[in-house]
């Protein structure tokens, strides 16, 4: 019904393509564990983004459930959250760790990571059938059509990608980066609310508002775990 393009707008239906029920079961076992491991590997490239993929996966899962998606659908988005930055494996460390603004060529290298990630994952049939590849490809699209790589707009963007976009931005704002210090949760929340309808899907932002206390507690636990690891 949806997989390669987007989840159903109301949260009803399946994100598994017709005839692929085994893919949905597979995503909750070996693939989920493998996705988590790959997320940790990408985060290890950059000490400033420790636990970023784990945080994006957990927040995305919470947002999906808050929007009324099924546990199976939320699990698939969770996997995509772990894998959303896998394309950064091809971005030079000198760019990822640069202090200060990126020049044009460096920014172009960063902007290629969603497509690179989708290309890495596309040979895995289960990830294609479940829409994970498209979620990774489009997690930097914007609701107003000003994102990348394809300048998709509104519901043209896979719902999983719209959910990951909010989780990704929240996690990024909560972590120190070479070019800026982190925001606290309240400041990050206010920024997300301000960007509703432009950068972010208003329905996802509404779910974020509704589950804000749960997400705050979640990121606090993950942050503490990251410091103690």
List the keywords.
single chain; 229 residues; mainly alpha
Can you walk through the features of this model?
The chain contains 13 helices and no strands. With 229 residues, the protein is mainly α. The longest helix has 17 residues, at 212-228.
Task: Give the radius of gyration.
Answer: 16 Å
Q: What is the rounded distance between the termini?
A: 41 Å
Structural class: mainly alpha
Assembly annotation: single chain
Residues in β-strands, percent: under 5%
Topology diagram in text:
Elements: H1 21-27, H2 30-44, H3 52-66, H4 71-83, H5 93-96, H6 104-111, H7 113-121, H8 125-129, H9 132-137, H10 159-174, H11 185-194, H12 202-210, H13 212-228
Summarize this structure briefly.
This protein has about 230 residues and is mainly alpha-helical.
